[in-house]
Amino acid sequence: MKLDLILRVTTKLILPFMLLFALYVQLHGDFGPGGGFQAGVIAAGMIILYSLVFGLRAAQRVIPMSVVMRAIPLGVLIYLGVGVVAMMKGGAFLNYSTLASHAEHGQHTGILLVELGVLVTVASTMVGIFYAFVERGR
Amino acid sequence: MLRAVGSDVAFTVLSLADQLPGLQIVVPLVGAIVCAFLRRGTVAWVVATITTFALPVIAFGLLREVQANGVVSYRMGGWAPPFGIEFRIDLLNAYVLLLITSISAVVIPFAKKSVAVEIDSDKHAWTYALYLLCLAGLIGMAITGDAFNIFVFMEVSSLAAYILIALGTHRLALLSAYQYLVLGTIGATFYVIGIGFLYSLTGTLNLADMTSRMAELNLLDPPSASLLAALAFIFVGLALKLALFPLHAWLPGAYAHAPSFITVFLAATATKVAVYLLVRFLYTVFPAGLALGDVPLREIVLALSVAAMIGASLVAVFQDNLKRMLAYSSVAQVGYMTLGMALANEAGLAGGLVHLFNHAITKSLLFVAVGAALYRMHSCRIEDWSGLARKMPFTMAAFAIGGLSMVGVPGTAGFITKWNLAIGALELGHWWLVGLIMLSSFIAFFYIGRVVELAWMRAPVSDLDDARPPPLSMTITMLALAIGVLWFGFETTFSLELARDAARYLLARGAL
Amino acid sequence: MSPALEALVASYNHWITIFLMVAGLYTVIAKDNMIKKLVGLSLFQTSVYLLYLSPGKILGGTAPIIAPEFDVYSNPLPHVLILTAIVVGIATIALGLALVVRIHEAYGTIEEDQVFAAGDNE
Q1: What is the ipTM of this complex?
Q2: Which residue of B has its CA nearest to A77?
Q3: Separation CA B263–CA C49 (nearest Å)
Q4: Rounded to two decimals, what is the model's pTM?
Q5: Using the beta-carbon criterion (under 8 Å), do C95 and B159 form an inter-chain contact?
């Protein structure tokens, strides 16, 4: 049990930093390499690491499969929602300039929201793939 | 005459008519996401049906607009091409869009009972979600004017198709999906390689812009080696997707083992969009004088089409499984489409383009009839269908009408295609080609006739206790398709005339 | 070095791309094990990423993020295209592996010749 203890304590220390780093990568997509997909994968990696060290059941108590299956279309819905709102305001699909009074603010808002949608979908897809593969062996 | 909508500088508010190209993509995507949230299969079917019925309305509106005002361009995100992605609709893809959306609308009622019986109930909602995603991908491929966007939509539709095929009941469905995945991904990657060469040569991804840059940068005369390499890679990539002989290996397994509704849907739409893309690249992006003149592509495609028409039909004769037989028949029919493309005169190209539509309705009718019989009989082996016509007369009559169209009997849609292809071949002096077209019709008569004879004239081999007429939703679909096959054999305003307009438009652009 | 040889050596990025492309395609065609085929497919797709990215680098250019001190930037468009292509590649390989798992459960083997020899009557 001693080896297990080191892993568990180290993982508990690392996990919050993984989430922080995922959010950092997500929000700094405008200024450096990053954005929704990379952040989503890091966030999913956090959950997968938790599952590897503490067991699948513990991970599924935190994020059950039903939440994952709902989150996958939710991210796409956010993305499409931004596009449809842009259409309803009279612009073309995904024309972010329509989202705020000033075109540049509209672009900022639009990109933040679609990257959020991408984050949700990618993270939940990666976690979903992991759960699906691991549950197969049981 | 281009009418651009949605500018990026102090944009003008778009009306509903202006938003049609955007809606064509957004409606099936939103429908797919709504289906993904649902639990019950029947509710998902209702959502899928409503979404699918809305799409031909939009496509028809687009066709009317293109016929009235010329090319329609829609700027995604409001960014102007060539930097932004634009949806560019001219006579060719307005026709293809109307085709895909209408066929999907006609066959979606068939899905209700067919999916319910062939796929596990907890997967129904996701099946409809994936079906709508595949349809959205196909529509996107047909509507977009940006080369890389084509790849994105191609992979959206292909990945959805791989999953849908894997939902089949037999374990061979998994193997067929895997083979389709490997071959399809190689095809898409070849396409991306070709686009990579084109991008590094011309500096743009917009299809219309690429053509003008090719001329400006003196890449055409003599043709630059990288340009020819790009043409080669794009041709092979798209040939894999449209199952041109000999790159058709994935098709028989995929069509034979997928769930019946998926076979109907994919047989009617997937290869057609790939043929459209090939025509788009060979006639519009690469000037037709290059693709079909300087390079011996015309002769190659001609030879491969003839090999497909004759070879695949011969293989179909020896099949025991009805779906597999129809799948090989599809490979042969793709040969007709590419033959029209290779003939490159107005009659030939129109014949090839109208076959996109005629084959779609004919094959859907045949596969729907097979699906309806499968719903009752649970077997696809041809021998098990002996004497079936006594118990399921309407279904077998529908199958017979589809078969007549496949052979190309006058009065059915299939005849229109063969007639135009023959005229196109005669205009070029290729008498032997007319003979080969008739030979493949003759072979088709064999393999269809075998099934019809067995069903109507032989005694039943096993008890046909389960066989009785199929559910109403399937009968309605079969009736609509059968009427369509006969109707479009006579009244060709929406099939042949549109194809002719598109062919004339394509040939006017390139110097052949 | 003669100019022809210099040109040949200077395009070393293309030689690496070609090597990976052919190695990937060969693995897909020649290997029977389904997972090895997917590995080859992934290798083939990776070579395409190199095909796009290596010409995108402008010698003397910096990363394509606008900053006041720099005026030569590498081309950002290939990076964007390849991000999309990488995501598509991941989805494809994940789907392929899921299919291999299911095939293994259904047939007991993942060697393609053994699966074909299982003699399925349709």
Answers
A1: 0.94
A2: B33
A3: 33
A4: 0.94
A5: yes
